What does this fold into?
Amino acid sequence: MARRKQVYEGKAKILFEGPESGTLIQYFKDDATAFNNKKHAVITGKGVLNNRISEYLMLKLQDVGIPTHFVRRLNMREQLIREVEIIPIEVVIRNIAAGSMSKRLGIEEGTMLPRSIVEYYLKSDELGDPMITEEHITAFGWASYQEIDEIMSMALRVNDFLSGLFLGVGLKLVDFKLEFGRLWEDEDMRIILADEISPDNCRLWDVKTNERLDKDRFRQDLGKVEEGYQEIARRLGILPEAGPRDMRGPETIQ
It folds into this structure.
C-alpha cells in the first residue's frame, strides 16, 4: 500500500501530496455527514460512486470550456487534481425551492423559482457555514469584485449545462454547491472550479416522481442512500462494472 503525506482531511475526502509539484491526490471516503457533522454514517461504496460521477461531470464541463482542477481519475477512489488556493466561499445555485431556502423563506419545497438564485456561504464548519453577501466577501478580502463576477458567471454557466445534462436523463437539478480556487501559474492567476460535483452536493429529483436520489436520502432518513447514488450513476451510464467495489485508502505519513 502506497505511503503518502496527507495534506488535508475533510468530511468526505482526503487530500494527499501529488506525484509532482502543483498536484494533489483526492481520495473519496464513504463517510456521510449532515447538519454540520452532527449526523454521521459510513455508506459502503459512496466514495467510489462520487469519484466516478464527479469525474464524468468535470470532464463534461471541461468539454464546454469550464476550467476545473480535475486532471484524471487514478483508480476507483482517487483522482489527480491541480493544487489550488481554495476561495473560502461556498456558492449555492438554486433552481427549485428546497432545504434551507424553503425553511428560511416559507416557500413550499418543489416550487420552481422565477429564476436561478445564487447564494454565498462562508466555508467554516466552526461557524456552521453562515450565509453571507458580496459585501462581506469583498470587505473581509475573501475575494475581489472581479473574482466574484468570474465566479458568478462560471456558476451560472455550470448550472445551465448541468441542468440540461441531468434533464436528459430524467433528473431535475434542484440546487447544488460549488467551490472555486485560484490556480497560480508563475505570476498568472485564474479562477477554476474545484472540489467535486456529486450527489453529496447536488439535489437531484426524478422528473416524473420527484423521488430524491441524493444526500437528502441520508439527511431525511429515507433509506437506500447508496441505491440513490447508484441510480444517478446508472442514468449517466457510468456505473462501474459489477457495481462499486470497496478499496482501502493509502497509508499516510505525517
In short: The mean pLDDT is 92. The chain has two domains: 3-84+224-253, 85-206. Residues 3-84+224-253 form a domain with the Phosphorylase Kinase; domain 1 fold (CATH 3.30.200.20). The radius of gyration is 18 Å.
